[in-house]
Every structure is written in C-alpha cells, then in structure tokens.
Amino acid sequence: MIGGGEGAYIGGIHRFAARLDNQYDLVAGAFDVNAERGHAFAAANYIAPDRSYDSYQAMAAGEAGRPDGVDVIAICTPNFTHYPIAKAFLEAGIDVICEKPLTATLGEAIALNDLAEKTGRFVGVTYTYSGYPMIQEARAMVARGDLGEIRVVQVEYPLEWMATGIELEGNAQAAWRTDPKKNGRGGSIGDIGTHAYHLAGYVTGLKAESIAADLATFVPGRALDDNAHVMIRYQGGARGLLWSSQVAIGQSNGLRLRVFGAKGSLVWSQEHPNELTFTPLFGAPATIKRGREDLTEATHARVRTPPGHPEGYIEAFANLYSGFAEAIRARAAGRQPGAAAEGIPTAYDGLKGVAFVDAVVDCHEAGALAWTTPKFA
Amino acid sequence: MIGGGEGAYIGGIHRFAARLDNQYDLVAGAFDVNAERGHAFAAANYIAPDRSYDSYQAMAAGEAGRPDGVDVIAICTPNFTHYPIAKAFLEAGIDVICEKPLTATLGEAIALNDLAEKTGRFVGVTYTYSGYPMIQEARAMVARGDLGEIRVVQVEYPLEWMATGIELEGNAQAAWRTDPKKNGRGGSIGDIGTHAYHLAGYVTGLKAESIAADLATFVPGRALDDNAHVMIRYQGGARGLLWSSQVAIGQSNGLRLRVFGAKGSLVWSQEHPNELTFTPLFGAPATIKRGREDLTEATHARVRTPPGHPEGYIEAFANLYSGFAEAIRARAAGRQPGAAAEGIPTAYDGLKGVAFVDAVVDCHEAGALAWTTPKFA
Amino acid sequence: MIGGGEGAYIGGIHRFAARLDNQYDLVAGAFDVNAERGHAFAAANYIAPDRSYDSYQAMAAGEAGRPDGVDVIAICTPNFTHYPIAKAFLEAGIDVICEKPLTATLGEAIALNDLAEKTGRFVGVTYTYSGYPMIQEARAMVARGDLGEIRVVQVEYPLEWMATGIELEGNAQAAWRTDPKKNGRGGSIGDIGTHAYHLAGYVTGLKAESIAADLATFVPGRALDDNAHVMIRYQGGARGLLWSSQVAIGQSNGLRLRVFGAKGSLVWSQEHPNELTFTPLFGAPATIKRGREDLTEATHARVRTPPGHPEGYIEAFANLYSGFAEAIRARAAGRQPGAAAEGIPTAYDGLKGVAFVDAVVDCHEAGALAWTTPKFA
Amino acid sequence: MIGGGEGAYIGGIHRFAARLDNQYDLVAGAFDVNAERGHAFAAANYIAPDRSYDSYQAMAAGEAGRPDGVDVIAICTPNFTHYPIAKAFLEAGIDVICEKPLTATLGEAIALNDLAEKTGRFVGVTYTYSGYPMIQEARAMVARGDLGEIRVVQVEYPLEWMATGIELEGNAQAAWRTDPKKNGRGGSIGDIGTHAYHLAGYVTGLKAESIAADLATFVPGRALDDNAHVMIRYQGGARGLLWSSQVAIGQSNGLRLRVFGAKGSLVWSQEHPNELTFTPLFGAPATIKRGREDLTEATHARVRTPPGHPEGYIEAFANLYSGFAEAIRARAAGRQPGAAAEGIPTAYDGLKGVAFVDAVVDCHEAGALAWTTPKFA
Which terminus, N or C, of chain A has the lesser number of Cβ atoms within 10 Å? Predict the structure, then answer.
C-alpha cells in the first residue's frame, strides 16, 4: 500500500476491503510521505520492518527484487501522485489498484492506460459504488432488456462536508481536494462527479456523445468548482442529467441513480444500497432485495448475507477487491475470470472518467456554452 | 366555469376546491364546446337552465348583464383557449381564475397580463402546488433566512402517464397536450415544467437570469418534447436544475423541490406533502410537519387538520381558491388581503411561466446551445 | 349538526366532509351547549336563525315538525351524550351519523343498536379510517384470497398529544377524554383503540374470540388508561396484537395496520394513506397506489384523483359521508346501495367497538389476567 | 471454531466478523460433525492439518496442550450442543464466544453461567444486533436521560423465511430450529424473540418483572411456535410489547425497536441501521446518523466510516468480536476494558434470554393465562 497511513481515511477502507474476503495479506508499504510516521504506522500494523519503505520508489525496487514480493499494490494518495506511482510499479512488474480519479490530468490518464496495455499488467480503479451487488443487478436488468431502450438517466452525488471553507481550517482531506495542483481541474466534478458518471455508464452501458456543463464555486476563496450541473447526450439518443455537489447541506453521501427506459425504470440510492425499485410500464413499483435467490450470478458473487441483513460500503469495496483478485488470478492461470470480476473497473474506465472531467471543465471555461464531446467514452 | 364538463379531469378538481371552504357557489357555466353535452352536465350539477350557456361568449354577455351575475369564473379548457376566454370575461368586468399555463403563446400572455392591469380585475392562476401549506412554510423559511443565501435549487416533475403514445389511442387529455396548436410550444416543459419552475421561484424568491435546455421526444410520432433538462442561472448567482418528463415510468406525479443554502437545506415532495425536511448546517435532518402550532401565519391559513391527519392535492387546490376569494374580497372592501392570499399566483406569475417555456424552446431550437434569458422573470 | 361549534375540532371535519361531494346541505343545528354561542356560530355559517336551536331536544322536535326538516343529523359531542341525542332523533324519525365510540357504556350501545333496528332508521358511525380507498382495497384483497388464510394481524394507533397532563392545563379536548363520566371506561383504548380494532376487523373480516389486555396510565393524575396493549385471539385461529397510546412522543396520528396470511401480506399506514404494500409469498414487495385503474369498484367509488395526487383524511371522511348518503338514498328508493356504501360502519359496528372496550377494561380490572370474550363480535 | 463448516450460514459470518478488524486469526477448528467434511473445509481455509480436529473434545484437549493454543473459540452449532462444547473449553482454560440462545435449556444456562463465574473465563454471546453503533447510541441516550423515564417499549422481530414448511423439504437450518430436541422449547421466541428481548433490555436498561404470552404455530406439522405475542411489565412500571414471527411474509429480517419516554422517543430499524429517529417532547423528529462526530465514545468505537457510507450486519458482528477481544485483552492485562467492550453481552445476558424463553413457554403452556416472572432478569 502506498499512502493510507495514520490520519488517512481511504487507506483504512482499502485495508478493511482487502481483509474481508481473505484474499489479500498486507505485507509491505510506503504509508506516508513522512517516512518516520510511515514506519511507525507499519509497525503498528504488523508489517515487517524491512518491508516498510521510505518511498514508493524504494518500495517498487525493493519488492520487485524479492522472490516473495507483493503481487499488487494499492494507491491511496492524492490524485496528482497516482500517475508516477502507478508507473513505477507497473514498470517494476507489479499490478496496481488505484483510487479514482485515475490521474490528475488527461495526459497522465492516457499515458497510464497505454502503459497498462503495453505492460499487460492489471490496473484496477476503485469506483467503489460499482461494487454494490444491486448495482450489478441493475446492470444485468438493463442488459437483458427489462427496461427496454433507455431514455433518461438521472444521476446525482451531493455531499455536505465541504459546505464551508474547512480547507482553510486545517482539514487536510479538503485541502488537497481544493488545490488544483494536487487534485486536477475538476472540484466536485472530479472528486465525486466521476463516481456518478461511471455508475451511470456502468449500469446502462451507454457512452456519452456530448455534455454541457455549468460549474459553480459557492464557498468563498475556493479555487475549484464545488457544484456541477451537467446535461448529457448519450450515443443513441438517451439523455442524462448529472449533479455533483460538495455543498449540499443534509446530504451525507447521497449518490443516487435513476434510469428510465421504454419498458420500465429503476431507482437505487447508495445510502440504502440493499434494495432497488423496479417499476414496469404502468405497473406497481417492486422492491428488489439484495440476497434474493433469483438474482443474477454476478450479483450473487457479490453477496455475503441473506436479504434483510444489510451490507454496506465496506462490502462494496471488498467486492471490488475480490473482483480484482479474481482477475489477477485468472490471468495468472490463463483462464477466463469468473462472475466476481465481471465488469470491474480498469484503466480504460479510469481514463474515461478523467476525459469526462476534462470535457466538463473545457465546456465551462469556454466563453460560450456548447455541447462538448469527451475525448474518450 | 368554462369547460370542465363530462369527462374532463381538472374541472372536477376546481369544483372540489371551490366547495371545500364554502367560499364559492357554482351557479353558471359553459361546460362543453358541445352545448348539448354542456347543458346536460349543468342540469346534473344543479345549475339553473338559464345560466347554462352555449358558449363562453354567451356566458360573458349573459352574466355581465345580470344583477346577480357571477363574481369570478374558472377557465378549465385547453391552453389555446385561455386567452380569448379570459379576455372576454375581463372585458365584461368579471374576475378570472385560469388554469396554467396562462396562455399558449407569449404574445397572448403579455396581452392578458396587460389587460389584467388595465382593467384592474383579478386574474388568478392555478399553480396548484404552491397551495400546499408546507410550500408556504418553505417560502417563509427561506425568506427569514433559515437557509442562508440560496446556492442550489433542484426541482423536478416527472410523470409516467404519457410513456407510450396514448394520444394516438384515443386519450383526449394526451391528444391536446401533444398538439402544438392547442398546447403551445412546450410539451412536458409547458405542461408540468411550468409548475416546477413556478414552485422553485415561489419558494426561493429567486428570478432566472438565463437558462440552457435540452429537450427530447422519446415517444415516436409525438410532436412536442416529452422530456426536458434545463440548467438555470438565477440572478445573484444561485444555480438551478429542472427536469420535467412525461415518460418517467414509476413516477405518478413526482414533483419534488430541494433547496440548498449556505446555512441549511429543505426537501419537499408533492406525493408526501404533509412534511418537509429541514437540515441546518452540519446538523441533524428534522421533519417539520404540517399542522404544528409553531408554523407561520400564512401556513396556518392553509391548514385544516392537525399533524398526522394528511391533507392533499384537493386541499392545496382549495387553498388557492380561498386565497383568490380573499384577494377578491379584500379588493372589494378596499383592505389589505389577509394571510390566506399571501403569495397567490396571479397574471404576472402566469406570464413568467410562459416566458420560461418560450426561452427553453428558443434555446433548444437554436442551432447551437447558448445561455438564454427569459423575457420576463 | 349537534355540537361541533366554535372551538370544536371534529365538527369542522364533518362539515368539510359533508360539503366535498355536494351531497349534503348544512341547514340546521344545535351547535353548542351554550345556546348563545351556538347561535353566533350558526349565523356565521349561513344557518337560518329559526333552524339554530337551543338544544338537541328542541332541534329534534323542530325539525321533525317541518316539511323541509333535515334528513340526517351528525352528532359531534362528547361520548356520554351520544346515546340520548341519537335516541331523540331516531325517535323523531331522523337518521343519525354519530361519532365513535358509539356510546359511553355498553348498555347504551346495546340500546341504541336495538333502537336502530326497531325504528329502521339509519345510524352511521364515523370510523373515519375505514373511509380510506386503500383500506377498501385491502379489504377486497383479503376477501378475494390474495393473502390466503389470515394468520397474524398487527394494528397500532399511537398518538403524542396527551403525553403530558394537558387536561389539567385547560385543554378541553383532553379534559373530557380523561373524565370517565364523559368519556366512558376506556381511555386510549376507547378513544383510538376502537378505531384500530374496527380497522383490523374491517379489513380482515375476522371476529375476536377473546382478548387479554394490559392497560397503563403514565401521566400522573390521569384517571383513565393512556396506553393499552392487547393480545387478540380471533375466531378461526388468527392472532392479533393491538397497541393504542396517547403518550407516544413522535407519533402524530400513527394508525398502522399489517396483515399476514399464508399467501401474502399487506401493510398500510394512515399517515401515508395513498398506497399499500403487498408482498406475495417469497415475492418482492409491491407498492399499490390509490387511483390505479385496476383496483376494485368499491375502491374506485372512494377515489377522486389519479395516483400521485394525494388524498387524505378529509377525503376519507367524505367517503363515509357519501357512503352514508348512498345508503340513505338507496333505502328511500327501495334499491340496493351502490359500491360507495359497501361496508360502511353502522350501529352494530359501533356496538362491537364498545363491547371491545368493555372487555379490555374488564380484563384489566380483574384480579388476574385471563382471556376475556367481548360480548359482541 | 466449532461447527460453521461447509453449508453453514452463521459460521461464515463469524469469520467475516473476526477478520474485519484484524484482531483474530483463525488457526484451529472442528468444523463439522462429519470429521472428513470438517477436514476438507479446514484445508480450504488455510488451517494447518494438525489443528483441524475430529471433534470438539479432541480440539479442547489438543489446543489446551499446545503452547500456541487458541485463546478463544467460537461455537456455531445448533442450540442443544452449546452447553457441552462451552463446558469442555472453559474447563480446558479456553475462552468462549457462543451463539445465542446460550443453551437449549434453562438448567444448562444456569450451569454455564456458574461455570463462567467459577472458572473466571470469558463467555461472550453473539446478540448480534447489540453490536450496531446506533444501538449503542440509543443506549447512551436513554442512560443520560434524553428520553426521560421510559414508559413504553415496542420491539418486534418478524421474518418470512419459514412461512411454509421448508423444514420438511430439506432445509437443514429450518429443520433443527423446529425440532424441540435440538432447538429447545421456544420456536420463534427462542430463535429471534431472544434477540428482540435482549435488544430492548440493552437499550433501555429495564428488567422484566413479568410477562404474558400467546404462542401460535401456523405452519401445519410444525412442533414449535412460529409466532409469539408477549406483553411485558418491566420493573418500575414501564410496559413492553414483543412480537416474534417466522411466518411474516414480506419481512426479511425486520427487527425494530421503539422506545417512548416522558421526554422523548427513539425508533431504530435493523434493516436501515445507520440512523435512528429521536423525537423530543412535542418537537420535530430528528434523524441521527451513524458516524457523526457528536456521538458518544462507545458509539465511535463501533464506527469505521463517516455518515452516508452504510455499515451493516457484518460490521455489527465485527463490533461484538472486537469488543470481546478488548475484554479478553483487558483481563489479561489487568486493566479496565475500553469503550469497545462497553455493554458486550456475556454469560449472564445469555442466561436471561433463556429464562425469558422459559417463562414465555411456561406461560403459554399453563392452562390459564397469567402474568409470569422470568427466573433471571
């Protein structure tokens, strides 16, 4: 693991996720830019001293040189460091699990995607919310035509935690997210809009044709957008609306997806992830519960408990980790990956996300509003 | 009453609304373009034969000439007839309650608003949803600063009943709504988008500076939009997103409003109208219930039952009617209207709605997307 | 109308309900035990002075003697006066609509039911909640076997408004409800438990075989129960649980019914009355919405607006009034009543409710707990 | 681990829970009464062959004799085996984590509780639902007086999975649960009623004074109750109502708790465990979210993610495991246990649960209904 040490949030989540299904052992890391703090953290987490590294460069070299070197690393650092770290490990022959957005710039994303192809190594991207079982079920429902041709996609991801200028009050998480150098060009649209955009595409299979966006910055002194409205035209004619916000008071982690087709609709909300509502044309809304026996195989592969025993965010994250493990093992064994790896987000998904953010910011920064085409879709 | 006879939907609602608070007697009408059917309907509704008219023109003349002529009429006909009917009665010295949208064209709306000013007569517009008590409370909360400066407004009005081409299968309600000559230029945006737009402005007090819109028609053969996405920039910097749809399977009458300010947010949904959720900055969401004693006077004036005894759509409609009655009586008495009439929608509100639809369709029909300014806001 | 004047709550509801469907005119009344206040109220409500009476006795005599005398009266007074008032009007040949509980004592209830039979006059009882359309639908679903044999009935009716001793602080509504002489033997169980008991029987068609009850009084100084727990054994083997409470903080008017059978279940909540949830055996819960075209005829007869346009408490009350009107007209015309009158609560339903309260209080007051059989079921 | 091998449900949950917080390593087990199957399971789960035992007796002896023997074992077997297994390990000096109900008979529960005291070993009982963070918060709210004196406790635990006679169709989980010899005297009341009873006592701190119960068996041929209604009188005057059911169609895992006091109320539902609703006297209901910074220390100790990132059943289970680990370590270190161990269920809690079931069945089997006092409270 790179980053994710003391005081980090997402690093802990990666560790829960890696442990849950007993598919990973955490054996090495460069946990902190401050090497001393990193070593202290390693010691507290049962890491052998010789595998707690001063830097990611040292770790890439060290682990590549060991017969028992790590199979895969997790990058849990601010966005601007994703690319150099991933590059170092891929070139050292080590697979990579990377936080989203894949990189801070589109150029880096293109380069990283190329490198993944060239090296043949695995690059998984933690679009967390695609790990939820009912999202897998929603995807299957669309794919098998339960909704008919898709007409309208509504996706939103509002948050409240940055509703005031906490980046000026010592909140490190908010500080790098509002710094264009560390975060990239997109504020809310890069941080959470990318999740929403991926989720909509993941479930519907639709690709964006063009977008039109209106970014706003409400908190005084903030350098990046903290609210984004985006109209989307998908290839084939479906229309989408995407809202991301870091200033939406009352919204803890309000990712929500609604898909309307010619024959039915579905609604899913991240804060109540264990069910989705499906309504057939002129029929009664039905609540489909995670864990039912009649769900698809790829859904079952992401379920641990029966209906009514809620699973949550950590389990969704663990589903990604287990999917990544399955993909890595299948490649090693020269076999097709199983259901657990179906649809897992990889480098190209990460590239699409960065291209979306780039198109949104381009659209907004242009003098006049215009339909803008993401470079990768 | 003009229109609203046998087989009509909204006419019956107007009658429920007029009766509920015992402020109106229905004593005359031209209930149907087919005079014979109109007279039959009148007879069944206890209307004296000499006050069941063959046409609105006959009624305007007849009632204007009676010492006990009607004080006010209700226009419950398709959009393209609103203007000539309203004109006839205003010129006959009779007040008017008119369905939305106020008229089918912007020119008519301007003319009608001018006529209302010139004649000094009352023109009420049935933006039904502004009659709900908790909408009044929401408006008061914004006005007194509970939410701080408004940043983001999300309003949506999705419906499912026109998800297929029912206008081709004999559904009269759908037929005129999809006929540009009878309905005006805006499909979903004119029929229900106007409600959503009014509601957002009513609660927040914000005026639109410019809009950018993407209209779509999903049902084959339909002449007008059945789905509209609109980004709004309000004067002063707030941003809005508006969605209207007639093809949103699973949505019965899904009008919903969310307002986010610097100090708090509120959420209200028309299908559960007896409560709203208010969340203060970093606080716990609270459910505010219609009927509580600590709500504002204008809310109390729209409440008939204590919390937990649900009121609904008919009561909201009745609140408009009682507000209109209060406005008419106050004018007659030369006094200020009371709380029941606070904020009731009148001709200028209707004009703003038509101007909004016009701007949306202009924006969409222009070759290139551009921020477009409604002519009245 | 008897009672229901200035300051009364339920009288106003009766008037809304009577007006809504245009089936009644309010033309006479004895609105207050204080005759002067009653006359003032009558004048403000457009009642002719000669039909505003000093007392119910005067009204019974006066109206019976007029050729245009009232067809039916509504009793909106405290419980202990129901019986003498109803008796006076029935004996004067005038039909009666009476608030629940039917009477304050079981003896009175028996006598009133006998009198209704003997005189052949109509006695309707305002078990308000049975007027909701989705309750009618629930009843039809059980009757046609959608749930299979009924196993378990859970009904509850919690309120918060009497959570403190407001009867000692000048609240007149609470004062008579906590006075055994005016209210009868049952506190919460008489006031609201009767509603819950009726609703459970109305929907399921089940009759109680025996009950076991635990009453409690939590507010210091209160003379009657303010919380009741009742276990019910229904004839045929189904089991029920009933909870009524006047001290349940957070519960505005929380009547809720859940019915579980061998083939399915249904859930309905009064505060969101426009839908019910039906779950078939091992199937997905479905939301059935009021106003759908595929509901039963008796449900349609109680619906005014399409799905998504909420109806509420006043509409439910109006459904009872319209059902009573249909029953009265059908009797006058010598025909079978239509769907609007199907299942409306009459004197015997009122008697059953009083018998239930009596059994509950008997059970509680007995030295030892024992299964107790209501005298009428 | 004893039991919990191939095909078992709860064993897998124990393993997820033990792994999540990195406090346990699974190193030995007797996973199956069929030793061969047990060994196969052990091999697949990375257990050294010499620590995969043929029987629990062999494992108690083997592990007690090793310097690196296990610290604690988890008992995941049917109820009737809990006592002999626990006894074997406690007498071998090994701590025990045991599924609920603690034992199949009251005599065994008394003996086991005595043995725990006598040996000074740790016995944790997996009353899973008490591991949820918001249950901890609810407990703290009651303890610090937010609700005032408790008046009414409503707890229910309905399930649907045994709504038909699946025990006759090869469902092993249902088979032992409906066999009095393997399960004990209580059907639904023993299996899930014990969870509900513990939860109510855990949150409120109340102890039962007496109970009155009505058990029913709805599925033909079933030997134990599958539905239980229980009225509870708590010491000090509060009243409770408990419902458990295995035949409640539509209910996946519907544990729900509502507590009403003189100053406020709270509502919590297991299927949406990340929030609770608190309503102060005559105030607005507030949604308190797991993860907020202003919650109590014992709640924080059970939280891994911020508000809006749902945690669920596995995390609740892991909280028990981490609490048990804290208790065991604190005892070894001779220090007070930290917040993670506050309130964790131990042998006496298990004994109380068995005593409750015993009282319920005694009450039901007595010829006449009577208030019955559990032997331990």
Answer: C
Give a yes or no: residue B321 inside a domain: no
Q: How far is C164 from chain A (nearest CA, A)?
A: 32
Residues of D in contact with B287 (CB under 8 A): 284-287
CA distance A88 to A105: 17
A330-341 pLDDT per residue, tens: 999 999 999 999
**Contact residues, B window 45-104, toward C, CB-based 8 Å cutoff:** 45-46
CA separation (Å) from A292 to A279, A287, A299, D16, D172?
18, 11, 10, 20, 18
- List the single residue in B151, B214, B247 with the smallest CB-CB distance to A260: B247
Quote the pLDDT of residue C208: 98
**Last residue of one domain, picked from the residues A128, A161, A181:** A128
What's the angle, vertex CA A213, arms to CA A212 and CA A218, rounded to 5? 170
The phi, psi pair for A201, rounded to 5°, reads -70, -35
A249 shares a domain with A158: yes
Q: Are residues C72 and C166 in the same domain?
A: no
Query: pLDDT tens across B65-99, in order?
Result: 999 999 999 999 999 999 999 999 999 999 999 99
Q: What is the pLDDT of residue C328?
A: 97
Task: Specify whether A76 is located in the same domain as A122.
Answer: yes
**What CATH number is attached to the domain comprising B36?**
3.40.50.720
User: Do residue C64 and residue C160 come from a single domain?
Assistant: no
Task: List all chains that touch chain D, counting a touch as 3 or more CB pairs closer than 8 Å.
Answer: A, B, C
Which subunits have 3 or more CB–CB pairs within 8 Å of chain B? A, C, D
Residue position matching structure tokens 């030793």: D35
C284 touches chain D (CB under 8 A): no
Q: Which domain holds residue B156?
A: 133-305+347-365
Residues A63-91 as b or e (16 or more Cβ within 10 Å = b): beeeeebbbbbbbbbbbbbbbebbbbbbe
- In this structure, what token pair is assigned to residue D113? 């509780």
Residues D166 and D204 placed together within one structural domain of the fold? yes
CA atoms within 13 A on the CB side of D114: 6
pLDDT at D368: 87
Nearest CB to B286 within list D284, D289, D292: D284
Give all chains having 3 or more CB-to-CB distances under 8 Å with chain C. A, B, D
A239/A194 same-domain check: yes
In chain B, how long is the greatest CA-to-CA distance?
A: 64
As a three-state string, the secondary structure of A275-293 is: EEEEEECCCCCEEEECCCC
Count of structural domains within chain D: 2
| pLDDT < 50 positions in chain C | none
Of B68, B100, B128, which residue constitutes the final position of a domain? B128
High-pLDDT (> 70) share of chain B, %:
100
In a domain, B217, yes or no: yes
Q: Is the dihedral of CA B141, B143, B147, B152 positive or negative?
A: positive
> Is C138 within the bounds of a domain?
yes
Of B16, B272, B305, the CB nearest to C13: B305
Residue A8's pLDDT band, with cuts at 50, 70 and 90, is: confident
Q: Does A251 lie at the interface with D, CB-CB under 8 angstroms?
A: yes
How does pLDDT run across D290-313, given as a tens digit for each residue?
999 999 999 999 999 999 999 999
Instruction: Please provide residue D166's backbone torsions phi and psi, each rounded to the nearest 5 degrees.
Output: -65, -15
CATH of residue A237: 3.30.360.10
The answer to whether residues B29 and B1 touch, using CB atoms and an 8 Å cutoff, is yes
Residue A337 within any structural domain of the chain: no
Model pLDDT, residue A33: 93
| pLDDT exceeds cutoff 80 at B146 | yes
Determine which of D287, D290, D293 to mutate to test the interface with B (most B C-beta atoms within 10 Å).
Answer: D287
Same-domain pairing of C165 and C91: no
Could you tell me if A57 and A103 lie in one domain? yes
Which residue, A167, A213, A208, is CA-closest to A189?
A213
